[in-house]
Amino acid sequence: MAGIVSSFVFGPLGFVVSQMGLGHIAALDAADLALAMRQVPGSQRAEVMKNRSKDIALAGLGGAIVSSVLSFTLVGWIFFIPSMFTGGALWIGSWSEDELEQYRKPPLKVKRHKSLPAEKPGEGSNE
Length: 127
Prior knowledge:
Blueprint (H helix, E strand, L loop, with lengths): L1 H9 L1 H26 L4 H10 L1 H18 L5 H18 L3 H5 L26
């Protein structure tokens, strides 16, 4: 919708720029979600996306082209976001575990306070 409105204000260039922005944001969101599914912490996901910014920009350009084509049919919008997220999941899913392991940090070890009793197996607050 923003592309249509901006095309009235800025002409055809507004539509192109808005579609490129939409594709880029969708590619960033797709990469972020796929990295989260591969258990990469949030601060490390930002580093991964900075290191792979060229790939994400190209995915955003592809997303802009797909978005431009699908914007002419309202039914096409139903398939745009799922296609971007599926592409992001497949792209990051193709990375090896060794490649992702460099971005994963070991989990934090939490020290229990001396006044708190140790939990016994089977006890917990979520049971």
